[in-house]
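Q: Hi! First time doing this. I have a protein sequence and I read that you can turn it into a structure. Is that right? Here it is:
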Amino acid sequence: MIDVDDVVTKNLPSLKDKPWIEKPVKAALKSLLYVDKFQEFGQQYPHLNGLEFVEQVLQYFDVSYSVRDSERENIPATGKVVIIANHPIGSLDGLALIKLVCDIRRDVKVVVNSLLMELEPLHPLLLPVNNMGGTTPKDDLKAIHNHLANEQAIIVFPAGEVSRLSPQGIRDGKWHSGFLRFASQSQAPIIPIYIEAKNSAAFYGVSMLSKPISTLMLVSEMFKQQEKDIPMRIGKQIPFEHYGALLVDIKTKTKMFKRHLYRLKKGKGDVFQTQSAIAPVEDRKQLKEAIEHCEHLGETPDGKVVYLHRATKNDIIMREIGCLREHSFRAVGEGSGLRRDLDKFDQHYFHLLLWDNDELEVVGAYRFADTAEIINAMGLDGLYSHSLFNLEGKMSDYLAQGLELGRSFVQPKYWGKRSLDYLWFGIGAFIKKYPKYRYLYGPVSISNAMPQAAKDLLVYFYRLYFGSIENFAPSRNPVQFNQALLEQLKQHFVGDDYKQDFSKLKNLLANMGVAIPTLYKQYSELTEPGGVHFIDFGIDADFNNCIDGLVLVDIEKLKDNKKKRYLA
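A: Yes, that's right. Below is the predicted 3D structure, encoded as structure tokens:
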């Protein structure tokens, strides 16, 4: 694993013509680098690579890691993420961190200096760069970006080398900004991990005199870590929406991340705004058993099953829904920021589930409520929509035969696979089975991740063509336009030709890199003219300041093709 001849040839080529010096230097290096130990290890475990190799090395040195249970969950089990850490030992701390992350998810790789590619058993876990100095081959950079694009995890040690003694204590040297470029380009969250460890006093003393010599000492320092535990502090996620919005240069932002990480050591306040990690998914076998006890509503052409669920105490299905909701909403710039997106209304609402029996996964879900039943039992305060819009007064005429819909989601991995359409099949199956409902209503969101101009256009357009003459359910936090903005928005549309203006809206949004939200398009196409209204629009401060439009659909005015599709 370590070839002293190769080390001397590459780093001390002048010794080739001085055999009287070369021989003792090689002997010293052989001792300093524990060559015999490494050769013995390599001969004993030639078949190991990747995580198995890491685990065997940690076992050989009897080194472990420790983290707080509450912080372990800060590492998401799925989804793209960039993990950054300090590098106090320069060896086993990196392996311990790999082990920690792999205990949660197996898709992690480490961005390392290309020199470390000499460690062949670690190849499956490594993504090489030239110390993030700008000379990395394009294919290597592409591999990093592809890894994140595939919703996987990377670990980066931004210093690129072991920590040294400084006036502030044992700290990394200058951080390279490569990790921030990777994360920003993929819009991945960043998780800081502070590793509590150190090398010997002799190492830091030699470091002050000669960094190259101290680097050669890292192998012997590694053997001094035997039988030690490496504590780690795992910070909360720093979402792209927060760090990406900061109007500072990349060098300043990199320094801010370094300061944020080192503040974890003493539990000081965060430099960046953070959010809780999403809770892990539930046990597949237990989830399947619980799902199969739900009310069966039907099956889709490709074999997925539609179920109806009512929440109970200690409910595994609701925990799974809360986890998947948060994951799905964060993917579009929304989300509650909580471990699970669950609220007090979930307990007395219906939950329509689309179940993939092959993958043992909840594909997506819709939440809805028998409005009359809830009002009789709990009053208007039992309705989620009433927390966003005032449903008193004339709206009560619709609530008596109303079914409130909302909180729909489809897991990102199932996007573009007709999953939302299948959920509508489920709603149709429910209405066929319980035909007392005439009106569908509920809040429909516009992501706050959209440009402000796009949100303004959407609200203006849907007010123009689907607004109610009388606002009989006003928002508690309404979206308001001043006269100047109204005049500006008015210029984009003719005002009396829906098809022409709809096409114009799509083009305007496309120029901004966004599209009409699927549910807005779907609701507006359900009925004949006059069957759909967006009564008012408001800002939901508890849901990442997204805009909610309160939609009202008259089922009796469904288009014939929609009746055949969903209610036949």
